[in-house]
Amino acid sequence: MSTKNELAGQDGNDGQASPTSLEVRFAQSQLSRNRRQLIREILDKNEETFFLSSREMAKRYNVDAATIVRTVQALGYERFADFTADLRQHFVNHITPYTVLKAATREKRSVPDHVRHCVERDTESLSVLRSSLDADRVVELAKLIHRSRRILVVGVDLAASLAWFLAYGLTPLGFDAESPIGSAGNLQHKIDVLDGKDLLIAISFGRCLRETVESVLRARERGVPTFGITDGNTTPIAIHCDAYLVASTSNPSFTGSYVAPMAIINTIIVASAHIQPSRALAMLGRTEAEYRSGERWYQEPQSRAGSGVNGNRGAGDNDSRRSRKKQ
Predict the structure, then answer these.
(1) How far apart (Å, rounded) are the C-alpha atoms in residues 106 and 114?
(2) Stated pTM of the model
Protein backbone atom coordinates (compact mmCIF):
# COMPACT_ATOMS: atom_id res chain seq x y z
CA MET A 1 0.00 0.00 0.00
CA SER A 2 2.96 2.29 0.58
CA THR A 3 6.72 2.17 0.48
CA LYS A 4 7.02 4.74 3.26
CA ASN A 5 8.32 3.57 6.60
CA GLU A 6 5.83 3.69 9.47
CA LEU A 7 8.60 4.48 11.92
CA ALA A 8 9.89 7.39 9.90
CA GLY A 9 6.38 8.84 9.67
CA GLN A 10 6.89 10.27 6.19
CA ASP A 11 3.88 12.31 5.13
CA GLY A 12 4.94 13.50 1.69
CA ASN A 13 5.57 17.04 2.96
CA ASP A 14 9.05 18.32 2.19
CA GLY A 15 8.45 21.60 4.04
CA GLN A 16 9.54 22.51 7.54
CA ALA A 17 7.68 20.59 10.23
CA SER A 18 5.57 22.66 12.61
CA PRO A 19 6.94 23.20 16.15
CA THR A 20 6.44 20.25 18.45
CA SER A 21 4.63 20.48 21.78
CA LEU A 22 7.97 20.29 23.57
CA GLU A 23 9.44 23.12 21.50
CA VAL A 24 6.42 25.30 22.27
CA ARG A 25 6.71 24.58 26.00
CA PHE A 26 10.43 25.33 25.92
CA ALA A 27 9.94 28.62 24.06
CA GLN A 28 7.28 29.78 26.53
CA SER A 29 9.01 28.58 29.70
CA GLN A 30 10.73 30.70 32.34
CA LEU A 31 13.54 28.27 33.11
CA SER A 32 16.75 29.25 34.83
CA ARG A 33 19.85 29.48 32.68
CA ASN A 34 21.18 26.09 33.82
CA ARG A 35 17.86 24.33 33.28
CA ARG A 36 17.40 25.97 29.89
CA GLN A 37 20.87 24.83 28.85
CA LEU A 38 20.10 21.28 30.02
CA ILE A 39 16.84 21.09 28.04
CA ARG A 40 18.51 22.66 25.00
CA GLU A 41 21.19 19.94 25.02
CA ILE A 42 18.54 17.24 25.38
CA LEU A 43 16.59 18.65 22.43
CA ASP A 44 19.65 19.15 20.25
CA LYS A 45 20.67 15.53 20.79
CA ASN A 46 17.15 14.11 20.76
CA GLU A 47 18.21 11.07 18.72
CA GLU A 48 20.47 10.11 21.64
CA THR A 49 18.11 10.99 24.49
CA PHE A 50 14.53 10.14 23.54
CA PHE A 51 14.77 6.54 24.75
CA LEU A 52 16.73 7.20 27.97
CA SER A 53 15.30 6.80 31.46
CA SER A 54 15.65 9.67 33.95
CA ARG A 55 18.60 7.89 35.57
CA GLU A 56 20.32 7.31 32.22
CA MET A 57 19.71 10.89 31.17
CA ALA A 58 21.09 12.18 34.46
CA LYS A 59 24.22 10.10 34.02
CA ARG A 60 24.73 11.41 30.49
CA TYR A 61 24.63 15.06 31.63
CA ASN A 62 26.47 14.53 34.92
CA VAL A 63 23.57 15.53 37.15
CA ASP A 64 21.41 13.55 39.54
CA ALA A 65 18.05 12.10 38.54
CA ALA A 66 16.21 14.53 40.83
CA THR A 67 17.61 17.46 38.81
CA ILE A 68 16.25 15.94 35.62
CA VAL A 69 12.83 15.39 37.17
CA ARG A 70 12.65 18.91 38.66
CA THR A 71 13.69 20.47 35.35
CA VAL A 72 11.01 18.50 33.52
CA GLN A 73 8.42 19.59 36.09
CA ALA A 74 9.52 23.21 35.62
CA LEU A 75 8.52 22.78 31.97
CA GLY A 76 5.02 21.88 33.16
CA TYR A 77 5.14 18.09 33.03
CA GLU A 78 3.75 16.16 35.97
CA ARG A 79 5.68 12.98 35.16
CA PHE A 80 8.95 12.21 33.44
CA ALA A 81 7.01 9.76 31.23
CA ASP A 82 4.94 12.67 29.89
CA PHE A 83 8.13 14.56 29.05
CA THR A 84 9.67 11.56 27.25
CA ALA A 85 6.47 11.10 25.25
CA ASP A 86 6.79 14.68 23.95
CA LEU A 87 10.55 14.23 23.50
CA ARG A 88 9.89 11.22 21.33
CA GLN A 89 7.36 13.20 19.32
CA HIS A 90 10.01 15.89 18.86
CA PHE A 91 12.45 13.21 17.75
CA VAL A 92 9.94 11.66 15.35
CA ASN A 93 9.68 14.97 13.51
CA HIS A 94 13.30 14.46 12.45
CA ILE A 95 13.55 10.68 12.54
CA THR A 96 14.73 8.21 9.95
CA PRO A 97 15.72 4.57 10.51
CA TYR A 98 19.29 5.69 9.83
CA THR A 99 19.30 8.24 12.66
CA VAL A 100 17.88 5.71 15.10
CA LEU A 101 20.53 3.11 14.33
CA LYS A 102 23.27 5.74 14.24
CA ALA A 103 22.28 6.94 17.71
CA ALA A 104 22.24 3.37 19.03
CA THR A 105 25.70 2.64 17.62
CA ARG A 106 27.11 5.59 19.57
CA GLU A 107 26.17 3.90 22.82
CA LYS A 108 29.07 2.13 24.49
CA ARG A 109 27.23 -1.18 24.69
CA SER A 110 28.13 -4.70 23.69
CA VAL A 111 25.75 -6.55 21.38
CA PRO A 112 24.24 -8.53 24.31
CA ASP A 113 23.80 -5.19 26.14
CA HIS A 114 21.92 -3.78 23.13
CA VAL A 115 19.66 -6.82 23.23
CA ARG A 116 18.97 -6.44 26.95
CA HIS A 117 18.41 -2.70 26.59
CA CYS A 118 15.86 -3.34 23.85
CA VAL A 119 13.91 -5.67 26.13
CA GLU A 120 14.17 -3.20 29.00
CA ARG A 121 12.62 -0.47 26.87
CA ASP A 122 9.78 -2.77 25.85
CA THR A 123 9.20 -3.64 29.49
CA GLU A 124 9.08 0.05 30.38
CA SER A 125 6.57 0.70 27.58
CA LEU A 126 4.32 -2.05 28.93
CA SER A 127 4.68 -0.66 32.45
CA VAL A 128 3.61 2.80 31.27
CA LEU A 129 0.69 1.28 29.39
CA ARG A 130 -0.39 -0.69 32.45
CA SER A 131 -0.46 2.43 34.63
CA SER A 132 -2.05 4.76 32.07
CA LEU A 133 -4.45 2.51 30.16
CA ASP A 134 -7.99 3.86 30.01
CA ALA A 135 -9.86 0.57 30.35
CA ASP A 136 -13.23 2.31 30.05
CA ARG A 137 -12.23 3.65 26.65
CA VAL A 138 -11.28 0.13 25.55
CA VAL A 139 -14.72 -1.05 26.65
CA GLU A 140 -16.39 1.80 24.77
CA LEU A 141 -14.52 0.77 21.62
CA ALA A 142 -15.61 -2.84 22.13
CA LYS A 143 -19.24 -1.70 22.43
CA LEU A 144 -18.84 0.30 19.24
CA ILE A 145 -17.42 -2.78 17.52
CA HIS A 146 -20.54 -4.74 18.59
CA ARG A 147 -22.81 -2.05 17.17
CA SER A 148 -20.97 -1.78 13.86
CA ARG A 149 -22.08 -3.57 10.70
CA ARG A 150 -18.59 -3.57 9.18
CA ILE A 151 -15.18 -2.76 10.66
CA LEU A 152 -12.31 -1.51 8.51
CA VAL A 153 -8.90 -1.58 10.22
CA VAL A 154 -6.38 0.64 8.44
CA GLY A 155 -2.63 0.32 8.93
CA VAL A 156 0.08 1.09 6.38
CA ASP A 157 3.60 -0.30 6.02
CA LEU A 158 4.80 -1.84 9.33
CA ALA A 159 1.50 -0.99 11.02
CA ALA A 160 -0.26 -3.23 8.47
CA SER A 161 0.78 -6.17 10.65
CA LEU A 162 -1.11 -4.65 13.60
CA ALA A 163 -4.17 -3.92 11.48
CA TRP A 164 -4.21 -7.48 10.16
CA PHE A 165 -3.89 -8.95 13.66
CA LEU A 166 -6.79 -6.89 15.03
CA ALA A 167 -9.06 -7.71 12.10
CA TYR A 168 -8.15 -11.39 12.31
CA GLY A 169 -8.80 -11.44 16.06
CA LEU A 170 -12.26 -9.92 15.65
CA THR A 171 -13.39 -12.15 12.79
CA PRO A 172 -13.72 -15.44 14.77
CA LEU A 173 -15.93 -13.55 17.23
CA GLY A 174 -18.42 -12.98 14.44
CA PHE A 175 -17.51 -9.46 13.37
CA ASP A 176 -17.21 -8.40 9.74
CA ALA A 177 -13.68 -7.02 10.17
CA GLU A 178 -11.19 -6.45 7.39
CA SER A 179 -7.71 -5.00 7.00
CA PRO A 180 -7.41 -3.88 3.35
CA ILE A 181 -4.25 -4.62 1.41
CA GLY A 182 -3.07 -3.47 -1.99
CA SER A 183 -3.06 0.00 -3.47
CA ALA A 184 -4.23 3.29 -1.99
CA GLY A 185 -7.08 3.13 -4.51
CA ASN A 186 -8.27 -0.15 -3.06
CA LEU A 187 -8.30 1.41 0.41
CA GLN A 188 -10.31 4.38 -0.84
CA HIS A 189 -12.86 2.09 -2.49
CA LYS A 190 -13.29 0.17 0.77
CA ILE A 191 -13.94 3.41 2.66
CA ASP A 192 -16.39 4.69 0.06
CA VAL A 193 -18.85 1.85 0.78
CA LEU A 194 -18.91 2.59 4.52
CA ASP A 195 -21.53 4.69 6.29
CA GLY A 196 -22.60 5.67 9.78
CA LYS A 197 -23.38 2.07 10.71
CA ASP A 198 -19.78 1.02 10.16
CA LEU A 199 -16.47 1.73 11.93
CA LEU A 200 -12.97 2.66 10.82
CA ILE A 201 -10.04 1.91 13.15
CA ALA A 202 -6.81 3.66 12.12
CA ILE A 203 -3.35 2.68 13.37
CA SER A 204 -0.36 4.97 12.87
CA PHE A 205 2.37 6.57 14.98
CA GLY A 206 4.59 9.62 15.20
CA ARG A 207 3.91 12.06 12.36
CA CYS A 208 1.56 9.39 10.98
CA LEU A 209 1.47 8.19 7.41
CA ARG A 210 -0.49 10.23 4.91
CA GLU A 211 -2.62 7.37 3.59
CA THR A 212 -3.77 6.40 7.08
CA VAL A 213 -4.69 9.95 8.10
CA GLU A 214 -6.43 10.61 4.78
CA SER A 215 -8.44 7.41 5.32
CA VAL A 216 -9.69 8.87 8.60
CA LEU A 217 -10.59 12.17 6.95
CA ARG A 218 -12.34 10.39 4.08
CA ALA A 219 -14.33 8.22 6.50
CA ARG A 220 -15.38 11.20 8.62
CA GLU A 221 -16.67 12.98 5.51
CA ARG A 222 -18.99 10.02 5.05
CA GLY A 223 -20.17 10.11 8.66
CA VAL A 224 -18.27 6.94 9.58
CA PRO A 225 -17.23 6.66 13.26
CA THR A 226 -13.43 6.59 13.60
CA PHE A 227 -11.13 5.29 16.33
CA GLY A 228 -7.35 5.56 16.46
CA ILE A 229 -4.44 3.63 17.94
CA THR A 230 -1.38 5.86 18.13
CA ASP A 231 1.52 6.84 20.39
CA GLY A 232 0.66 10.35 21.54
CA ASN A 233 -2.12 12.82 22.26
CA THR A 234 -0.97 15.24 19.58
CA THR A 235 -0.46 12.93 16.59
CA PRO A 236 -2.66 13.44 13.50
CA ILE A 237 -4.50 10.21 14.33
CA ALA A 238 -5.29 11.48 17.83
CA ILE A 239 -6.39 14.85 16.46
CA HIS A 240 -8.65 13.61 13.67
CA CYS A 241 -10.21 10.43 15.10
CA ASP A 242 -13.37 10.58 17.24
CA ALA A 243 -11.50 8.76 20.02
CA TYR A 244 -8.16 7.00 20.41
CA LEU A 245 -5.88 4.87 22.57
CA VAL A 246 -2.20 5.58 23.19
CA ALA A 247 0.64 3.04 23.30
CA SER A 248 4.34 3.86 23.10
CA THR A 249 6.44 2.56 20.22
CA SER A 250 9.67 3.90 21.71
CA ASN A 251 12.62 1.56 21.38
CA PRO A 252 16.32 1.71 20.37
CA SER A 253 15.47 -0.49 17.36
CA PHE A 254 15.31 1.35 14.04
CA THR A 255 11.93 -0.31 13.45
CA GLY A 256 10.47 0.97 16.68
CA SER A 257 8.53 -1.44 18.88
CA TYR A 258 4.97 -2.72 18.59
CA VAL A 259 4.98 -4.53 21.95
CA ALA A 260 2.71 -1.97 23.65
CA PRO A 261 0.40 -1.49 20.62
CA MET A 262 0.01 -5.28 20.43
CA ALA A 263 -0.95 -5.28 24.12
CA ILE A 264 -3.57 -2.60 23.36
CA ILE A 265 -4.96 -4.69 20.52
CA ASN A 266 -5.19 -7.73 22.80
CA THR A 267 -7.26 -5.70 25.28
CA ILE A 268 -9.63 -4.72 22.48
CA ILE A 269 -10.12 -8.33 21.43
CA VAL A 270 -10.60 -9.46 25.05
CA ALA A 271 -13.15 -6.71 25.73
CA SER A 272 -15.02 -7.53 22.52
CA ALA A 273 -15.29 -11.16 23.61
CA HIS A 274 -16.43 -10.47 27.18
CA ILE A 275 -19.09 -7.85 26.51
CA GLN A 276 -21.30 -10.66 25.20
CA PRO A 277 -19.52 -13.88 26.26
CA SER A 278 -22.41 -16.15 25.24
CA ARG A 279 -22.22 -14.75 21.70
CA ALA A 280 -18.46 -15.17 21.61
CA LEU A 281 -18.70 -18.75 22.86
CA ALA A 282 -21.36 -19.54 20.26
CA MET A 283 -19.15 -18.22 17.48
CA LEU A 284 -16.01 -19.99 18.69
CA GLY A 285 -18.02 -23.17 19.26
CA ARG A 286 -18.45 -23.49 15.51
CA THR A 287 -14.73 -24.18 15.11
CA GLU A 288 -14.25 -26.18 18.31
CA ALA A 289 -14.36 -29.53 16.52
CA GLU A 290 -11.80 -28.33 13.99
CA TYR A 291 -9.44 -27.19 16.74
CA ARG A 292 -9.75 -30.53 18.52
CA SER A 293 -9.34 -32.66 15.41
CA GLY A 294 -5.99 -33.84 14.21
CA GLU A 295 -6.58 -32.47 10.73
CA ARG A 296 -5.73 -28.92 11.80
CA TRP A 297 -2.38 -29.76 13.35
CA TYR A 298 0.79 -31.13 11.88
CA GLN A 299 1.46 -34.82 12.51
CA GLU A 300 4.52 -36.84 11.64
CA PRO A 301 3.92 -39.34 8.82
CA GLN A 302 3.48 -42.94 10.00
CA SER A 303 6.67 -43.96 8.20
CA ARG A 304 8.63 -41.72 10.57
CA ALA A 305 6.78 -42.63 13.75
CA GLY A 306 9.66 -44.75 15.02
CA SER A 307 12.38 -42.39 13.85
CA GLY A 308 14.67 -40.45 16.12
CA VAL A 309 15.00 -36.68 16.25
CA ASN A 310 16.74 -36.51 12.89
CA GLY A 311 14.42 -39.02 11.28
CA ASN A 312 17.27 -41.36 10.31
CA ARG A 313 17.24 -43.84 13.16
CA GLY A 314 14.61 -46.53 12.87
CA ALA A 315 13.91 -49.60 14.99
CA GLY A 316 16.65 -51.51 13.14
CA ASP A 317 19.24 -49.02 14.35
CA ASN A 318 18.16 -49.55 17.95
CA ASP A 319 18.29 -53.34 17.52
CA SER A 320 21.86 -53.15 16.14
CA ARG A 321 23.01 -51.01 19.08
CA ARG A 322 21.49 -53.46 21.58
CA SER A 323 23.18 -56.36 19.75
CA ARG A 324 26.59 -54.68 19.97
CA LYS A 325 26.15 -54.06 23.71
CA LYS A 326 25.47 -57.77 24.31
CA GLN A 327 28.64 -58.75 22.47
Answers:
(1) 11
(2) 0.68
